[in-house]
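To whoever picks this up:

The parser on our side crashed when reading a file containing two proteins. I've narrowed it down to the boundary between the first structure block and the second sequence. Both blocks are reproduced below exactly, byte for byte. First block:
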Amino acid sequence: MAKSQYFPQYGGRTSGQTLVQDLIDEQIKLFGQDVYYVPKTMLIDSTVDDVILQKYEDSVLIEMMLINVEGFGGSSSVAMSKFGLTLSDEITYAVSKRRWIDYVETQIDTRIPNVPNEGDLIYVPMTKNLYEIKYVEREVPFYQLGKNYIFSMTCELIQNADNYFDTG
């Protein structure tokens, strides 16, 4: 099939992609807020291959933008489970891919490189809330100009169990 001159195929970095990434970075810096990204480290028992303890020992300050402007907009904030009532307060943040790779990946070691990890935490100093990343969407918006520019993270208010915190 012949390529259309009106819909070019973007293979490499173009000036249009760089411009869009610069505009997204600037928008997140202007309208976002500084939050702490706290990666999770797990101590694993090698005999039974099970997690003994989850530790949080590092933190990185980075700007993220609140996508879900209605606050806690989960499917329902109170749900019944077999253990009683559970709270499922969800919030959605966006972070620039370029800022993530250039800034966070150079300072800390993540379990899966070049992407925020599910299970890691986000601390919001303004509200003093701690959120756990439940899902990272890597393809929203879907390939504008042939590239993705942000990570969209769905987070849930943490219910602390047996975790060790020493982030300094």
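<<boundary where parser fails>>
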Amino acid sequence: MNISETAILVVSFGTSSEQIGISAIEQLESRIRDDFPSYVIYRAWTSEWIRNRLLEQENQKINNVSEALNQMKEDGIRNIIVQPTFVIDGEENQRMRKEALVYAKDFSSMKFGAPLLGDEVDAKMAAIAVSQTVSASISYTEDDLVVFMGHGAAPDTLIHESMDWKPDPNAMYTLVDNFLQQSCHSNMVLRLMNKPGSIEEILALASSQQPRKIILVPFMIVAGRHAQKDMAGEQETSWASRLTTAGYSVQCIMKGLGEYDTIQEIFSEHIKRIL
């Protein structure tokens, strides 16, 4: 590749959370910029609602994928590396790829990096990363129960091109959960916000373990709206409220995966594979 004509497009869902969420994305982008100083880094967010909100309320314009690729073409970029910051190869990632591929003919090459959990190796690395970070950064003992909240996706939302079957979009989350308990800490689990029965599973697990306290941690790139409301919110349906009502001491860690150095490293490794 000609470095002067090659650029990296970092694609995120975006966040409407004013400080915490945007900081996580910016930290991830900054890490990629530091790791690949010879390449220009562009940004795109896929959420139209969030982009419109930032434009209306803060006069901040953030490109979508099409706008970013058009800008890259105008800037003379010929080789594109598209690196998504999504957790899994879910509906959002597939929609992004389709949108980007429309412009493939305008460039000499367009290659895509994997999302965070691209394969089994990524899942193991992510499990190690989050378990080590949580263990080192909070007041945690083996008497506590650590629950990571992932977003999760509905299986019927995914249809891979050239496939006549629908893979389970949450399979990679299951791998992370298995690695957490088998290779990291038996009292760390990953459960999904969008999977029915998740909070009931956590309550049953807590009942059997009787932990000193339950620590809730978002397994999402940003500690945004879902972490702030569905995980840690004051409404009675949040995980924190359900667990508190059941009599457990609950601590919420408001830190997105994009803020973890070790998670940032996984995304950089995905780009290195392409290069």
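After patching the parser it read the second block fine. Strands lie at 6-12, 40-45, 79-84, 109-112, 145-150, 188-192, 214-219, 250-252. The chain has a mean pLDDT of 91.
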